[in-house]
TrEMBL record:
Enzyme class: oxidoreductase
Top-level taxon: Eukaryota
Compartments it resides in: Endoplasmic reticulum membrane; Microsome membrane
Protein's organism: Salvelinus namaycush
One GO cellular component term noted in the UniProt record for this chain: endoplasmic reticulum membrane
Name recorded for this polypeptide: Flavin-containing monooxygenase
Alphabetized UniProt keyword annotations: Endoplasmic reticulum, FAD, Flavoprotein, Lipid metabolism, Membrane, Methylation, Microsome, Monooxygenase, NADP, Oxidoreductase, Phosphoprotein, Transmembrane, Transmembrane helix
Enzyme Commission (EC) number: 1.-.-.-
Tagged with keyword Membrane: yes
Length: 421
């Protein structure tokens, strides 16, 4: 008898989860709340609620060689770093090749996922869904794979910015930014120096009168092009470097690489020297930002102290007047609103999961979260490996350790990350 698996989300993690289910002889049903696959990578002019939205010019920060699924290489004629439209083309080819789309039910929202009364014996789940007409439906599944990712709810921390209610210009989250042209000749502040903040600041600086890039902690800025013209992630994922990471002190490995990065672009000269080590957080990949800072079209500023009318005061005491727009490139929060509140609590935008996948307190290991990681590289291969492992656990081919062992592993990882922050 085939075991039925509920897959929530039809983005990159959802697609590879469907395929892994099929590979293991399981019967997947994927519920996707929108009308298409692709998740984060599908450009839409009008953002949907509770969903990340990219801007028109987005190019991926990992090379095609490092982001592709293991059994379906990206076509050779595609560029190393792909525009979001080409990433969507790849996902469509992947879905068509493995006949995944027929297992996806579009425009279906998952309302509730809860253990059945006999869960301790069966490991089954009651799942309630709703279609776009408001019609609800109940299902029974043997396992659940949650593939909604990190980018769910825009983080707009207005309470951290005194005087925002007096601001006379416009402000919005980066998810609402699409193109630069409408801001031609304006003065703009971008808050946050992650990949979105860096990209948006650079793009706006081509048409605006001035862009100010506000950052609390700075960032390590990497170029897409590494030594000898190959993608930078070829260089960062060499076996010798990974071996060095496993045997040398973390601080030493970081310092060696940081020194090399600063030879090309001395971060302290640009007020970008971060407080964290290179391999402890996501670096910002941006080829143009150093040039834009050097040319003055982007000016780096510290955190905002307060806003007043059309003026903004920064922590260093400087004030910039006549600001027309503030873009909050302040990331996203995630949650699991369809789960019982005590099953998988989220605190500080983190969830306690064994190997970032399995809730340690479940009596039966029939629920897995796929793709809820922020690696120093592409998520697609990691989601694929997670999905392959999860489906084998569902079938009983792989066993999880005891709850105590899982909790110890979670605590160890949290302590290690805290030390490196």
């Amino acid at each position: 008898m085939s075991r039925r698996v509920c897959v929530i989300g039809g983005g990159s993690s959802g697609l590879t989860s469907i395929k892994s289910c099929l590979d293991e002889g399981l019967e997947p049903t994927c519920f996707e709340s929108s009308d298409d696959i692709g998740g984060l990578w599908r450009f839409k002019e009008n953002p949907e609620a509770d969903r990340a939205s990219i801007y028109h010019s987005v190019i991926i920060n990992t090379s095609k060689e490092m982001m592709c699924f293991s059994d379906f290489p990206i076509p050779a004629h595609f560029p190393n770093y792909m525009h979001n439209s080409l990433i969507m083309d790849y996902f469509r080819m992947y879905a068509e090749h493995f006949q995944l789309t027929k297992h996806i039910r579009f425009q279906i929202r998952v309302l509730q996922v809860k253990p059945r009364p006999d869960f301790s014996r069966s490991g089954q789940w009651d799942v309630e869904t709703e279609n776009k007409k408001g019609e609800k439906e109940k299902h029974i599944f043997d396992a659940v794979m949650i593939c909604i990712g990190h980018h769910c709810h825009p983080n707009l921390p207005l309470h951290d910015f005194p005087g925002i209610d007096t601001f006379k210009g416009q402000y919005f989250h980066s998810r609402d930014y699409k193109t630069a042209e409408e801001w031609r000749g304006k003065r703009v502040v971008v808050i946050g120096i992650g990949n979105s903040g860096g990209d948006i600041a650079v793009e706006l600086s081509r048409v605006t009168k001035q862009v100010f890039l506000s950052t609390r902690r700075g960032a390590w800025i990497l170029n897409r092009v590494g030594q000898q013209g190959v993608p930078i992630d070829f260089e960062l994922n060499r076996r010798v470097l990974n071996m060095a990471k496993s045997v040398l002190p973390f601080g030493l490995v970081c310092r060696l690489r940081e020194n090399k990065i600063n030879q090309r672009f001395n971060h302290s000269l640009y007020s970008l020297q971060p407080k964290h080590r290179l391999f402890s957080q996501h670096p910002t990949v941006n080829d143009e930002l150093p040039n834009r800072i050097l040319s003055g079209t982007v000016q780096v500023k510290p955190n905002i102290r307060r806003l007043r009318g059309s003026s903004i005061e920064f922590d260093d005491g400087t004030v910039e007047d006549n600001i027309d727009l503030v873009v909050f490139a302040t990331g996203y929060n995630f949650s699991f609103p369809f789960l019982p509140s005590n099953m998988l609590p989220v605190s500080g935008n983190k969830a306690s999961l064994y190997k970032y996948m399995f809730p340690p307190g479940l009596e039966r290991p029939t629920l897995a979260v796929i793709g809820l990681v922020q690696p120093l590289g592409a998520i697609m291969p990691i989601s694929e490996m997670q999905a392959r492992w999860a489906t084998r656990v569902f079938k009983g081919l792989n066993k999880l350790p005891s709850m105590d062992c899982m909790l110890k592993d979670i605590k160890h990882k949290e302590e290690t990350i805290a030390k490196r922050a």
